[in-house]
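Training component of the fellowship. As part of building independent skills, the fellow (R.M.) carried out the full modelling exercise for a liganded target. The chosen ligand was 1,3-dihydroxyacetonephosphate. The inputs are recorded below so that the supervisory panel can assess the work.
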Amino acid sequence: MNRIPFIAGNWKMYKTGPEAVETAERLVTLCADVENVEVMIAPTFLSLPLITPCVKGTCVKTGAQNLYFEKEGAFTGEVSAEMIRATGSEYVIIGHSERRQYFGETDANVCKKLKSSIHAGLKPILCIGETEIERNEEKTFQILDKQVSDGLKSFGSDELKDLILAYEPVWAIGTGKTANINQVEEVHQYLRALVGRLFSMDFACRIRILYGGSVKPENIRELMNIKDVDGALVGGASLDPEKFIKIIKYYL
Ligand code: 13P
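Fellow's submitted model of the complex:
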């Protein structure tokens, strides 16, 4: 199955509007000769309508870092899938571990957010991953099983055709500690088989599974060489376009 590599930058709560525009414009220039890689950047909600026109017609796409599952209403401070889609943005990150950890995001919420994103025509990137304690207690697969099964509950595979999964071990995020090759290989293989059991193996072979957690120019190549790794979700190293382009052009 030919899965086009997908390299995404999660800018988290960094960059003002003007800074985001400058970074996006620089990245577009650097990406001019990128071959066979889809690139996505996720700035703050405020920068989304500013940078989406800057990348239009290029291989760089944009996405939001979160959304609220209601379409509209009295939900102070929230942003809906329709509002994100109206900026021209194509993607949305759902269930990032920082949302689970600091903002009480549950698998039930994740499921509702997935539903509303698909309904609005946004392509969801579902983040999953275990904490250090869970790994040490050998609960990694149990945790991933629950996050995937509960997050994707009640969907048919036809609704999930644009789904991207991102395995981000919480202990590897922003720590400089990347999961080792065996750990990544084992989990990605497990995740594809799990999606195969929940839906079908044909569907599982079509969806892309990204790795995230301290991805940098120095380790992207070996990560991308792992059979079931179809791309990366990059935090810190995506903020600097000169660094991020080295990750995007991992194949050179
Ligand atoms: P770092 O690349 O900074 O570890 O962050 C990973 C991440 O959380 C991407 O969503």
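The panel noted the following from the submitted structure. Residues 125 and 164 are 5 Å apart (CA to CA). The pocket of 1,3-dihydroxyacetonephosphate is lined by residues 10, 96, 168, 173-174, 212-215, 233-237 (CB under 6 Å).
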